[in-house]
Design goal:
alpha/beta, 9 strands, globular
Length: about 150
């Protein structure tokens, strides 16, 4: 996981509609950048739907929410449509952004070791600096936790 107080790594990734997004285009806004393992899994769905429900409050605070996983653009589109997600999902099938943000790590599941995305959320300020970093977040609690962080910052 990256430390707070450093410049957030730049990225250029396609969203669920195939449009390219860069961190630079969000300069002047707070960015909640959350990394999750996989579309349509129970925890990831809970987290995404909760961000969706709270999205108007994030907008009121001048923040954007960006979800990142290694799923394809097509998978993200289905995920967005199935749950009516109002925010941007970014596809990082090459793992460039996922590795730059140090969330591609060894995971243990039922004794089996594999590499995967560790659920992590970063709060990036208007100048592109990481001001908060949360690793191994609880999917259901993370959106409300990030909203509280925005209220305090």
């Amino acid at each position: 996981m990256l430390e707070t107080g450093i410049k957030a790594p730049a990225f250029s990734l396609p969203d669920q509609n195939g449009q390219i997004h860069t961190l630079e285009e969000y300069k002047g806004k707070k960015v909640v950048l959350y990394f999750y393992p996989k579309d349509n899994t129970p925890g990831c769905t809970k987290q995404a739907c909760s961000f969706g429900e709270l999205y108007p409050q994030f907008q009121e605070k001048g923040a954007v929410v960006l979800g990142v996983s290694k799923d394809s653009v097509a998978s993200h589109k289905k995920f967005e449509e199935k749950y009516g997600l109002p925010f941007t999902l970014l596809s990082d099938s090459e793992l460039a952004c996922i590795q730059a943000y140090d969330v591609w790590q060894e995971k243990k599941n039922y004794g089996k070791v594999s590499m995967g995305v560790v659920r992590t959320t970063y709060l990036i300020d208007e100048n592109g600096m990481i001001v908060k970093a949360f690793g191994k977040v609880k999917a259901a609690d993370n959106p409300a936790q990030m909203l509280m962080e925005l209220k305090e910052s």
